[in-house]
Amino acid sequence: MQDHDRELRGHGRRRFIATAAALGLGSLAGCAGLGGEDETTTESGGNETVEQIGSGRSPFGDREITGGVSVADMPDLSGELTLYSGRGEALVGELISFFEDYYDDFTIRPRYNSAAELVNQIQTEGQNSPADVFFSVNAGSLGALKDAGRTQKLPSEVLDLVRDEFHDPDGQWTGTSGRARTVPFNTDQFDESEIPDDIMKFPETEAFRDNIGWAPTYSSFQAFITAMRVLEGEEATKQWLQGMQDLGVTEFKDEFLVSQAVADGEISAGFANHYYIQRILAGRPNAPLKTAFTSGDAGSIFNVAGALVLNTADDADLASNFVRHLLSAEAQDYFARTTFEYPLVSGVDPIGELPSIDELNPPEGLDLTQLSDLEGTVRLLREVGVL
Amino acid sequence: MATEQRTTTGGGDDEQPLGLTVASGAVAAAVIVPLLWLVESALEVGLSDALALLTRPTTVQVFLNSTVLVVLVTAACIALGVPLAYLTVRTDLPFKRFWTVAVSLPLVIPSYIGAFTFVSAFGPRGVLQRLLAPLGIDSLPEIYGLPGAVLVLTLYTYPYVFITTRAALKSMDTTLIDAARTLNHSRWEAFKRVTIPQIRPAVAAGALLAALYALSDFGTPAIMRFDAFTRVIYVEFGAFGRDTATLLSLQLVAVTLVILTLESQIRGNERTTTGGRSGSVMKLGRWKYPAVGFAALVAIVALVVPMGILLTWLAEGVAETGRSLAFRPEYAFNSVLVSAATAGAATIAGLPVAYLAARHSSRLSSLFERATYIGYAVPGVVLGLALVFFGSSYATPIYQTLYLLVFAYVIRFLPQAIGSLRASFLRVDPTLPEAARTLGETPTGAFRHVTLPLVAPGLFGGAALVFLTTMKELPATLMLRPSGFKTLVTHIWSAHEQGYFGQAVVPALILLFVSGLSMLIIIRQEGYDVK
């Protein structure tokens, strides 16, 4: 390892160098799926070194970059890029400015807003849209722009970095990090074994009566219900929703608030993406909050945050190379450490109190692009009076 | 719209000056034109779908919910705003100056911050509950739902009523009351027969702003888990049902028109008041303490609760992951820049509309004035999208520039400037500029040298009001700002959305401080009213 710049532990800001050598370390650690990447990257690193983005620390301990392709081995970025980001600045701002600072003549004009509002904005702007890349929190909003014919195909160098199930089959978008559906529960009120591992069993679980929460206007929740419609059918989904309402479910504005209410004991359990739990635990390590998973059903879908290149992009090469950078070892490590998401590039591990991506049991045969039919879900949610 | 009732205005020229009418019409058109996108977009939905959507039980329910919310908030705003205005103007309330400032200040707090902090303070397992837990109190009355939404919206919009009513009370001729009293009317009767008719237009104007605010606010009902109209629109946008959302927004515009009509009925006849003499002040006597208690309670609930919670968040520290949200002074500068530009632009655009409406009452002048209110009631996100379309299609050179952003703010907040200006024009005795004319001034000269100086306080007051509401605006800012341009509220939103509350505190405090300063201007300008 060419870690000439590395300081000793416990001293101010540690700077780790992620070089091609780190990639070798990742493979040694037994991570599959790197294939032929090793030889293309080991020698090309040259003198260029890339720091770990932000500090190496996470609230769950120190770590180094373990695998993936370094930024140093990706094509340089130069020029100006307008990025519409449906991911909040609090989460990805540091990553975005890292790339901007890393390249001398590369400028990013980021525009942060909710993913849905940006999709609406891009569609409203039509062919005059200044956006080059859309970076989003879920497959649904990416699919919506694809369906509207506003995307262009990503090159295979980008698509090949992640497993097939994490990018659009037609190559119009790629996932950049993963998010698992989970059940946050309060450990003062439940034992892990008491949480059903079948999502369809929840409405009939009396222990949850008037004591469980959800966020029905939240897009991840709607994606989860969309998955249920695909996997179980409309009728079963309708009954499930009805059952939950009869059980007495509390409504929240978003899933961060759901998870917080569970941590506070206001409710005993809820439905939320996995990282909200980690984010609360990062700030309050002693909170009586844990993550439960269901198995092989809509409650355990693994959705992605991802990116796409718009058909109005000024410089499509620059845009797709930028997306490629979001799949660099450094960016993937950043997602794991900072946003507590699942890295999608093999060899970069998740962090915190989480099972590895291979230990998750998402439903078989569910295509993420099927999750973009939110309209049907909203209609169903209305029919049963949830919305 | 029922405009016939409004017959008497201050005399002056009987025929409408053409130039003024054209200018006023142009402002109204500029406000309305981008909103035509709503109509176009809604037409794409198709009639049968549209009808199905609008008559769906949940839509009807949500419509009723919104109506109840608006009615209750408006009533509560009047119930708080009018007595407080009366106490601070017409009685010997101790520390009047202080209470005037204290009960005006809630206007500087954005309602979404109010809602979050109230939930944090009074929600289940909130700060208050935790404080009371040792005393064996383990649950508090439910804050969520209608009560919470009404409470928060009232606390942060009643100052509209307070401010407008105060101005009217200050400029009222109190000799009329004394006259009524000498005619053996009781205090209450004198109030009912003399004061109420005189302040009614001002109360109605303030209540209108509060009602339209309650109708268009998204944040508070969402946080309070109350199904108001704006929430359905939000859900539709979230499901990429843009056309449906705009259809619902049109329905919202229709409700706005109903409210505008109602307000013009209540506003009733207006007179030009030729500057008041207010000498007599009501002695509160033993009512002094309840009166102070009332003002103190309102100020404490509306100000101390959010400030306390904000400071708690600050004390809890800053999460490691929130580093990219480090505060930069330029955000405050940006906020002040766009807000000042908006205040100036809205005042200039408001002048012809307000002058025409105050001096030359006609169907047309009234139509122009009312038209400017529509942008105020459309939810920010809808107005934002309309201007995205307008800007990217027809005004590409200014799309995602500060010009379009300021234009959006003007559409949104013009009524506040117009309301204040109009009231000021009504207070200028029309014989004064006429006198100047007889002395050889041109109409423009008479306006510049006589009328304008007289309305200057109202002009600055209106501008300050626009300034501080622009400081707080969020949804249109998010959509229309130049990429990379950040203001205090976009920064607060970024931090808050991701749950990094601590990072939102410093910009929130700066926002409150700067807005507080502009509030002082609003209060100060009233000093001119009582010569």
Nutshell version of this structure?
Chain A has 387 residues and is an alpha/beta fold. Chain A has helices at residues 20-28, 37-42, 89-102, 115-125, 139-147, 156-159, 219-232, 234-247, 255-263, 274-283, 316-325, 329-339, 374-383, and strands at 17-18, 50-51, 57-58, 61-62, 79-85, 106-112, 133-136, 151-152, 174-186, 212-214, 249-251, 269-270, 272-273, 289-292, 302-310, 342-343.
What is the element layout, followed by pairings?
The complex is a heterodimer of chains A (387) and B (531).
Chain A: E1 17-18, H1 20-28, H2 37-42, E2 50-51, E3 57-58, E4 61-62, E5 79-85, H3 89-102, E6 106-112, H4 115-125, E7 133-136, H5 139-147, E8 151-152, H6 156-159, E9 174-186, E10 212-214, H7 219-232, H8 234-247, E11 249-251, H9 255-263, E12 269-270, E13 272-273, H10 274-283, E14 289-292, E15 302-310, H11 316-325, H12 329-339, E16 342-343, H13 374-383
Parallel strand pairs in A: 5-6, 5-7, 10-11, 10-12
Antiparallel strand pairs in A: 1-2, 3-4, 7-15, 8-15, 9-13, 9-14, 9-15, 9-16
Chain B: H1 18-32, H2 36-43, H3 47-55, H4 57-90, H5 96-104, H6 111-122, H7 127-132, H8 146-171, H9 175-182, H10 187-216, H11 219-223, H12 229-238, H13 242-267, H14 288-315, H15 329-359, H16 363-371, H17 374-377, H18 380-394, H19 402-427, H20 431-438, H21 443-472, H22 475-480, H23 488-497, H24 501-525
Transmembrane segments (chain B): 20-39, 59-86, 98-123, 143-163, 202-224, 244-262, 292-315, 335-358, 370-391, 397-414, 450-471, 500-523
Protein name (chain B): ABC-type iron(III) transport system, permease protein
Keywords (chain B): Cell inner membrane, Cell membrane, Membrane, Transmembrane, Transmembrane helix, Transport
